[in-house]
Amino acid sequence: MVDESRRQLIDAYAPDEMARRVLDLGVAKARLTAPDTIALAVLAGAFIGIGAAFATLAMTDTGLGLGPARVLGGVTFSLGLILVVVAGAELFTGNNLVAMAWASRFITTGALLRNWVLVFMGNLIGALITGVLVFWSGTWSAGEHEVAMTAMRIAAKKAQLGFGEAFARGILCNALVCLAVWLSQSGRSTTDKVLAIIWPITAFVALGFEHSIANMYFIPLGMLLRSDAGLVAEAAAAGIPVEVLSTAGFVSNLVPVTLGNVVGGTLLVASIYWFVYLRAGTVGAGEEGA
After folding, report:
1. Does the chain have fewer CB atoms within 10 Å around its N or its C terminus?
2. Which domain does 62 fall in, by range?
3. Which of 145-154, 160-169, 268-277, 281-290 has the lowest mean pLDDT?
4. What is the C-alpha separation between 162 and 206, in angstroms, rounded?
5. Residues 130/45, Cβ–Cβ less than 8 Å
6. Burial 107-125 (b: 16+ CB within 10 A, else e)
7. In whole angstroms, how far apart are CA 31 and each of 18, 114, 140?
8. Burial class (CB within 10 angstroms; exposed 0-12, middle 13-18, buried 19+) of 139
9. Digit-coded pLDDT (tens) for 30-51
10. What are the distances in angstroms from CA 272 to CA 36, 187, 241, 283?
11. Nearest to 101 by CA among 280, 239, 278
12. Mean pLDDT for the stretch of residues 232-252
């Protein structure tokens, strides 16, 4: 039989232990310096962009049908969050779990908002840079421009969403993203973390939910591809409404999706786990200020 000390090194962390780990991690994230926060946030935006580019290729001309193709896209997109969690980076959607440290009064409201704003802006920079590099690389021309058509189709569908639809999809998306981050805190090895991340992320992509940071890559890339007259003609022939690939289309998607992501991450995941596992241990306002 495996002795108790050996078992503790093998078994996953229990949910109450995961809550404490997420709390401690949230405090550490909120206390990062601004330069470190921004640098790690730029990395995270780039990582999510790379995962999105991988998923775009995977969903191109699969011949698998809608469901299986989306599942494949979800598995490949998981690369983005795997890089964020394992390599180390600051992702706005996952950082909605920092609200657990705020609810326990280990960090102030100002510290929470500072982290979210810096990380959001850093993610935007990283995702946009990745989109520009992918555009310059010309890899979208693969398969006689089929990859470009997939990218433009994805971007156009996102830009066409109404406010309510985008908001609801944002809520559902970040509930799953934060659950993926939460589950990764149960793992003691890289393998544990990777396996914990894949399925919630696969689910949100396959189900068509909306991730604000991924959309910082998808829609701007579609806008860049729209600048190619030949691609516009091909897209029009394929029935892709390229006219929605604009700054207005990008903003009209990003605002409700971001709001939905915050609601899904903080209310559906962070607040519930805080209530169950951490509320009894909440420290007084004198610890750090409220």
Report:
1. N
2. 13-278
3. 281-290
4. 20
5. yes
6. beeebbebbbebbbbbbbe
7. 20, 10, 40
8. middle
9. 999 999 999 999 999 999 999 9
10. 30, 21, 40, 18
11. 278
12. 94
Q: What is the DSSP letter of 32?
A: S
CB 261 within 8 A of CB 176: no
Amino acid found at 223: M
User: Is residue 1 in some structural domain?
Assistant: no
Q: What is the DSSP string of 51-119?
A: HHHHHHHHTSS--S-HHHHHHHHHHHHHHHHHIIIIII---TTGGGGGHHHHHTTSS-HHHHHHHHHHH
Domains held by the chain: number = 1
At position 90, the amino acid (one-letter code) is E
**Nearest Cα residue to 123 out of 157, 176, 180, 81:** 81
Tell me, yes or no, whether 234 lies in a domain.
yes
CATH of the domain at 151: 1.20.1080.10
69-72: which pairs have CB atoms within 8 A and are 24 or more residues apart? 70/205, 70/206, 70/207, 70/208, 71/202, 71/206
CA distance 286 to 290: 8
Residue 6 is assigned to a structural domain of this protein: no
**Structure confidence by residue, pLDDT tens digits, 269-279:** 999 999 999 98
Q: Rounded to an integer, what distance in angstroms lies between the CA atom of residue 52 and that of residue 140?
A: 13
